[in-house]
Amino acid sequence: MSSNLQRMKEILAEVTDLQRAALLLEWDQETYMPPGGVKGKSEQQSTLHRLAHERFTSDEVGRLLDSLESDVAGLPFDSYEASLVRVARRDYEQQVKIPSQLVSEIAGAGATAHPFWVRARIDDNFGLFAPYLEKNVELNRRLAGSFAPDLQVKYGMQVVTKLGFDLERGRQDISPHPFESSFGPGDTRITTRVDPDFFNMCFFGLVHESGHAMYQQGISEELDRTPLWDGATPGVHESQSRMWENLVARGRPFWKHFFPSLRSTFPDQLRNTDEEEFYRAVNKSHPSLIRVEADEVTYNLHILLRFELENEMLEGKLKVKDLPEAWRARFRSYLGIDVPDDRDGALQDIHWSSVSFGIFPGYTLGNLIGAQLMERARTDIPNLDGQIETGDFAPLLGWLRKNLHQHGRKFTPNELLERATGKPLTAEPWITYVRQKFGALYGLETAPRRR
Ligand code: ZN
């Protein structure tokens, strides 16, 4: 037997011993333990389960599994060694996603709740058990709902490098507010933020910022160190980030390609979700308070509201002191919901604090420009969706490089659009896109309108 296998078996034996000791405590609790023993038993269960979990999910076990997998590669599938390594790997991958602290809390909570459930049944009194059930539901939600932050970043980075973000000339880091900065053709950086309970934030944030970064990375090097080396305008820049984020990464062909690998990265979290459900979940459209989290359909209403209000302030028609109330009234009228406080109302964006006015329309212009470019790219690249389905993003990125990225600031948005699509900016491609996509998603239109 190899020394690696020997070592692995020693660790697995220790883990089994700890688990069996915990099982014996459980047996004790269900048979002879006096009621006064609950607190101590709960602490002992926490400790044993935590130790077993820490032992099993250690870096050493990870390393041993890596080397054992190649050791047993040639052995028959049903051999003892190959089976041991295979099953231990499966358990390891599952356990390593759960923090030891949570394992410990769950073990303790189980031991604490059990006698109250017994008592509640005897007395037929649900109220006795309810607070413990509440706690257990919360713990289980943390167990099932949570996407490990490092895995989210790792998976997201695999995806954006596949889209075309070149890490030889870029990097990614974590920050509270995601952004992109470029220090020249060889160094474009992005940041992202991660929420363990909300997958969309990190993933679509990474795709969004990578859209900005790929634009910068595509500017012709001969424009470097001149005022021409940059994105054309904030609106054109936003067309690139929002196009990759929404028109590509929130599309069906994209998830046809990526969903299987996403599900094998998060098997427990996505156990009961299929590709279609996932596609629908990331395209849920509903009025909401926060602009940066708004869906594609309602997003532009958030912009319209800000643009109107800032114009009215600049023209002196709206006094600053009346802004919060004006915000509430307009929000109710455009999005149909009441704004509960100013934090999620007139105070939610950073822009006005840094004397940045007239910036917001860039986001809507970005949506429109992105849709117009995409419409033309579909004409120029036969079977674009088919390519995306197979994970081939090079033709789309190549098209954007040629028609947009390389030019830097040489042209105005309309000059760029005329050259790339044959016409100046028009809202029609975006309207058609949203009608078709969300019409189909929500069963609002069976067929796209044609004139
Ligand atoms: Zn952006």
List keywords for this structure.
about 450 residues; mainly alpha; 3-stranded mixed sheet; 18 helices; about 5% strand; binds zinc ion
Annotate the secondary structure layout.
Blueprint: H1 3-30, H2 38-56, H3 59-71, H4 80-95, H5 100-123, H6 126-144, H7 149-163, E1 170-174, E2 180-182, E3 188-192, H8 199-218, H9 234-248, H10 252-265, H11 275-281, H12 296-314, H13 323-335, H14 361-380, H15 384-389, H16 394-403, H17 413-421, H18 428-441
Parallel strand pairs: 1-3
Antiparallel strand pairs: 2-3
Helix pairs in contact: 1-2, 1-3, 2-5, 3-4, 5-6, 7-8, 8-9, 9-14, 10-11, 12-13, 12-14, 14-18
The structure holds zinc ion.
Zinc ion binds next to α8 and α9.
The main pleated sheet reads as: 3 strands, mixed
Uncertain segments: none
Number of helices: 18
The secondary-structure element order is HHHHHHHEEEHHHHHHHHHHH
Tally of strands: 3
Structural class: mainly alpha
Bound molecule types: zinc ion
Mean of residue pLDDT values: 93
Q: Compute the gyration radius: what is it?
A: 28 Å
What's the overall geometry?
globular
Short description:
With 451 residues, the protein is mostly helical. Helix content is 62%, strand content 3%.
Describe the fold and architecture.
- This protein is mainly α.
- The protein has helices spanning 3-30, 38-56, 59-71, 80-95, 100-123, 126-144, 149-163, 199-218, 234-248, 252-265, 275-281, 296-314, 323-335, 361-380, 384-389, 394-403, 413-421, 428-441, and strands at residues 170-174, 180-182, 188-192.
- Strands 1-3-2 form a 3-stranded mixed β-sheet, covered by helices on one side.
- A hairpin with a 5-residue loop joins strand 2 and strand 3.
- Helix 1 (3-30) runs antiparallel to helix 2, helix 1 (3-30) packs across helix 3 (59-71) and helix 7 (149-163) runs parallel beside helix 8 (199-218).
- The radius of gyration is 28 Å and the shape is globular.
- The chain starts with a helix and ends in a 10-residue tail after the last helix.
- 27% of the residues are buried.
- The mean pLDDT is 93.
- Zinc ion binds next to helix 8 and helix 9.
